[in-house]
Amino acid sequence: MIFRFLQFSKATLLAGFVISLSTTPSHAQDLKLWYKQPSKQWEDALPIGNGSLAAMVFGGVENERIQFNEETLWTGEPRSYAHKGASQYLAQIRTLLNEGKQKEAEAIASEHFMGVPLRQMAYQAFGDVHIDFPEHRNASDYRRELDLEKGIAQVYYKNGNVGFKREVFASYPAKAIYIKLTADQAGKLNFAVRMDAIHAQKNITGHANELTLQVKVENGVLEGVAKMKVVTDGKVSHKNGKINVENATAATLILSAATNYVDYQTVSGNPAAKSAAILKNAPLVDKALKEHIADHQQLFGHFALHLPMKANSALPTDERLVKFKDNPDDPAFLALYVQYARYLLIASSRPGTHAANLQGKWNHQLKPSWDSKYTVNINTEMNYWPVEMGNLPECHQPLFAMIADLSKTGAAVAKEHYNANGWLVHHNTDVWRGAAPINASNHGIWVTGGAWLSLHLWEHYRFTQDKTFLEKTAYPLMKGAAVFFVDFLVKDPKTGMLISSPSNSPENGGLVAGPTMDHQIIRALFKACLESADVLKTDQDFAARLKKLSLQIAPNQVGKAGQLQEWMTDIDDTTSHHRHVSHLWGVYPGEEITPEKTPELIQAAKKSLEFRGDDGTGWSLAWKINYWARFLDGEHAYTMIRKLFNPIMDASVKKGGGGSYPNLFDAHPPFQIDGNFGGAAGILELLAQSHLGELHLLPALPKALPDGKVSGLVARGAFEITMKWKNGQLQRVDVLSKAGNPCHVRYGSKRVTFDTVKGKHYKLNADLQLQ
Ligand code: FUC
């Protein structure tokens, strides 16, 4: 059958095309990742996403591959992972730990205390779109790029004397992925398109200008349907699940995908109807592109960071990454890295979608590393570190929706495992909102996942000052998390202090009574609840109780090697280079250990970090950037940034320390997106810190960043900072007060305080004098 879908006037199309088909960067300060060759591996391909759909664009000449995901395609089924009757063993486990019988405690816990099943479920790749251009064997002037400002992946090249262009974007308003193909000479575009998947259970059908890919996961109840329609001015024919387009000037492929997942308890959705409805409602590409760019820029454009371009800044991104290793004088690369993280958040975490998982939403495997789920003993939280400072508070919303679900599944686990009120989450969760301990008792029993997540609600309030959010959403969830610890904390027979037992210092040292990190998190949660109760003028008795309990929780301790103790007893191995440095949580993202207020503890924390060393997995390096920023040591933070930017050009190499792949995805290795977000947060912490109730400007500026300008950087108290610095010195700053709070500003040893009116700007000079 032959169809003809007229969509464009050829004249307009060609005119627009010639201008944008350029093989050299228009100006290299552009917020673009760009390359002179197609992807050789998945970690070269460029990510796009609209929160629920994600895709990797490979940019091959003769064969384009667009590997895509839909966020709800996971293995498994709705279920509670709680272990019935586990709480009967709690006292015994605690006693064994008190008696120093760790192995026995772990053995009992393995048998009676772990989630059922023991492992959580896996996020799944969905499918691939393959576009074949068999005639394109003479490519020249090749360039592919990811335009962070517009949210579009593009490919340009010439085949003979005909220019070809591909624009690929994932639209949040249209809920679909668009692949627009154009030739700069009329009728020269010929290609075949098909869909495929790596699932054993799959079915590919087509008719007229549409293809349908159905998949079903191997181990679970979820199935997905992806649909693709071709809109073109060329001749369309369909055969054997493949669509051929001939003699076109332009063609757009519109892709939708959906599953039967409705929520963590419900799988009664109709994926075929959902994806058909998306396609039916999808606007034509010109309108969709316009709406997409507006939608993307309305978030992306809230923040800008300008750091100077240097000799290497104009290089393609992969070459620039390699060069950075020995010649890190490329400040603009840090700005690109921060903006890439913001781009990735917009692409993977939009209101109404799920929280960004271990790989954001980008996964090409059925057995991804760590199932590409949510590890909440660092990784999931790290994903959201730059979201408030980077002026993307909307992108925090999916995490809050997940926390709301977890407060329910976690309440069942609190009852079943600890006979406690409130809710908790252990070290992992998945799309089914598992909250019970998983994998192994020596690291799966870690009780402060929900508490740490809850602090994100508090941070959102601190940055936005949104009292309705605090009252309706944040405080009830935070309170539930705190209630759990009121019941759970137990007296340490040796010190008489309250401790968290059983738990562990994430993935280091096995099951213990009273890891330092837990106590820091619980104190922070109690403090957040106290302050919330104060703001909301509610729950005074509960607040008083938390205050009293806080003072009884085991404090931070300095050990014999001068280190901050990771546990209750002074047993830290000072030769260990373990990737987790969890006991420094109170330095970052916590704030109870600070240079001014607790100088001895900050010294001890630094000592601990020095013992651990500068190496680590991607996320570990990223966390260390933030630690050094909070130590106000910009030089050491910059050393860590260099390590995070360590080029890892071959993704099959899984050994060794972390770094960055050619597409700047963080390498654990393997790929894990947390480092992208943690690294960006660390760079922002060098420019401003606001956790201590004042806007501390340029608190840890490294020598490598002497000049720069930032705008739209958000600080707690709902202030938006625009500032410029030169030769390492602040030039001027403009503070926009979004909530009318009093403003305390600090720069070096200078400090100023002034009242503000909501919506007004306040300009200060380098001496912090109001202008
Ligand atoms: C924790 C870390 C690992 C990895 C995994 C996803 O288990 O210890 O390094 O990041 O999460």
UniProtKB/TrEMBL annotation:
Residues 33-263 form the Glycosyl hydrolase family 95 N-terminal domain. The keyword Cytoplasm does not apply. InterPro entries: 6-hairpin_glycosidase_sf (IPR008928), 6hp_glycosidase-like_sf (IPR012341), AFCA-like_C (IPR049053), Alpha-L-fucosidase (IPR016518), GH95_cat (IPR054363), GH95_N_dom (IPR027414). It comes from the Bacteria. Residues 689-755 form the Alpha fucosidase A-like C-terminal domain. SUPFAM superfamilies: Six-hairpin glycosidases (SSF48208). Residues 286-687 form the Glycosyl hydrolase family 95 catalytic domain. It holds the Pfam family Glyco_hydro_95_cat. Residues 1-28 form the signal peptide. GO terms for molecular function: hydrolase activity. Keywords: Hydrolase, Signal. Transmembrane segments: none annotated. This is Glycoside hydrolase family 95 protein. It comes from Dyadobacter chenhuakuii.
